[in-house]
Design goal:
Blueprint (H helix, E strand, L loop, with lengths): L2 H11 L2 H20 L4 H10 L8 H10 L15 H12 L4 H8 L10 H12 L8 H10 L1 H18 L6 H11 L3
Helix pairs in contact: 1-3, 2-3, 2-7, 3-6, 3-7, 4-5, 5-6, 6-7, 7-9, 8-9, 9-10
Length: 185
């Protein structure tokens, strides 16, 4: 799948506001890939496709989780988590995409211990793209300019704190990713 094909697919799949967010993620992922020596085309493609399943029906996404043999724990948490792994599965079935691109899409919400550099780029780009406005985003943007790994840790910390403030359950993979990146015993 070419970037232009992905863009056409996403433009017809997402509402305008989410498409604008996606364009911001593409811009940010491209910049980070150049800065950190990662494959720019893969970063752009993963960024364009990252929210492919964002507005799919939750019941259908749950069915994909079961059918594809994804982590069944996903079904015990907020449906918001489903779009990343489900999107990766559906895109992988329908299009010829490199495993690295699918991995970045799959991991862009929860992270994963041992994330690749491309995974890290999309994870951070999604959080700091220019249209994002929330307390702490400028600090995350500054971290991303100095160290990709530090930006991942700061993004995880921000996400975990946000979820704690909402008093909602935190998907274990997010905690595992945080622990992996800060090298806790």
């Amino acid at each position: 799948m070419t970037f232009e094909e992905a863009k056409a697919l996403i433009e017809q799949t997402l509402p305008e506001k989410r498409f604008i967010h996606t364009l911001g993620v593409v811009e940010t992922a491209e910049r980070l890939a150049k800065k950190y020596g990662e494959n720019v085309e893969q970063a752009r493609l993963a960024a364009m496709l990252h929210d492919y399943a964002k507005y799919f029906d939750a019941a259908e996404m749950r069915q994909v989780v079961r059918e594809a043999g994804l982590d069944s724990n996903l079904l015990e948490y907020d449906d918001e988590l489903l779009h990343a792994p489900v999107g990766a599965v559906l895109l992988g079935r329908a299009y010829h995409l490199e495993p690295a691109v699918l991995s970045a899409i799959r991991n862009h919400t929860t992270g994963e211990p041992g994330m690749s550099r491309l995974d890290q780029i999309l994870f951070v780009a999604d959080a700091i793209e220019p249209n994002r406005q929330y307390p702490g985003v400028e600090r995350l943007r500054m971290e991303a300019e100095h160290s990709l790994e530090a930006a991942v840790v700061a993004t995880l910390r921000q996400t975990i704190q946000f979820l704690l403030n909402k008093s909602v359950r935190i998907f274990p993979l997010t905690i595992e990713t945080y622990n992996d990146f800060v090298n806790l015993p």
